[in-house]
Amino acid sequence: MPKDTFWTTDPSELLRVRPGFDLADQPTDGTPGFDGGKTEGQDALAAGRDKLAELQEKLYACGREGDTRSVLLVLQAMDTAGKGGIVSHVIGAMNPGGVHYAGFGKPTPEELAHDFLWRIWREVPSAGQVGVFDRSHYEDVLIGRVRQLAPPDELERRYGAITGFEHELAESGTTIVKVMLHISRGEQKKRLAARLDDRTKLWKFNPADVDERLRWDDYQEAYQIALERTTTAEAPWFVVPADHKWYARVAVQQLLIHTLERLDLEWPMPDYDVEEQKRRLAAS
């Protein structure tokens, strides 16, 4: 079923952060631009898998033939907002050979001995790849601000360093899609409680998640500042309502489809005579 069946408005326009954006005014339980509920959302996700996979394979094939372009999806969110589900249900539809996944946790002693972007540079996607950052360089201006892990002047430097880093990536041919999954405090509490009630999900629970909840308002402020300071034409932010997991997944899928379609990719032409190879194969 084509995407137009489900989307009344392109989510890349509806969800994009623009001047005057206020995170506090953004609903977490909405489904902007989508025509339908959970069942339709699941249908849309299934319908989009083949399209996304084809576009990603085309990018990968072009990269193998010398095209320097790539795509980077940055996922940022409060705990339980659904980053893992995006990776499983959206990125999982792609050929893993053309995907570069990087999950960023607490910096190691080696990483702390370098500038905060050192470990990020090491994980940027190569030509033809779709890169996925599960958390990212933004941790250093989010938790770094909330937990006061860096002085104010260093935080200010980091905003500039981030935009410079993303500009350099864009100049080298990487299209950047930055997604904040916007979950409500109440929905997060339900999801954390569900983990504690499920023996198979206990490994996902971290007592520190409760500590971070106590700083909820501080994190919302940190996100607002980061969104304002680092959304640019070449590296835009998209704020995706995440109280409905199905909507967040299909919205991110559509953002990636839109991004890959805009690259206007063509299947690379072989450097051999196709008909000749057919004849050789038939005679073999």
| Average pLDDT level | 95
Contiguous helical run count: 12
Number of strands: 5
Biggest sheet features: 5 strands, parallel
Describe this structure in words.
The longest helix has 27 residues, at about 40-65. The protein has helices at about 10-15, 40-65, 85-90, 110, 120, 140-145, 150-170, 185-195, 205-215, 215-230, 245-260, 275-284, and strands spanning about 70-75, 100-105, 130-135, 175-180, 235-240. Helix content is about 50%, strand content about 10%. The radius of gyration is 20 Å and the shape is globular. The protein starts with 10 loop residues before the first helix and ends with a helix. It has a 5-stranded parallel sheet with strand order 2-3-1-4-5, sandwiched between helices.
Summarize the structure.
The chain contains twelve helices and five strands. The chain is of the alpha/beta class.
Q: Any key phrases for this structure?
A:
alpha/beta, 5-stranded parallel sheet, 12 helices
What order do the helices and strands come in, and which of them pair?
Layout: H1 11-14, H2 38-64, E1 70-77, H3 83-89, E2 99-103, H4 109-112, H5 118-121, E3 130-134, H6 139-146, H7 152-171, E4 174-182, H8 185-196, H9 207-213, H10 216-230, E5 237-241, H11 245-262, H12 274-283
Parallel strand pairs: 1-3, 1-4, 2-3, 4-5
Helix pairs in contact: 2-11, 6-7, 6-10
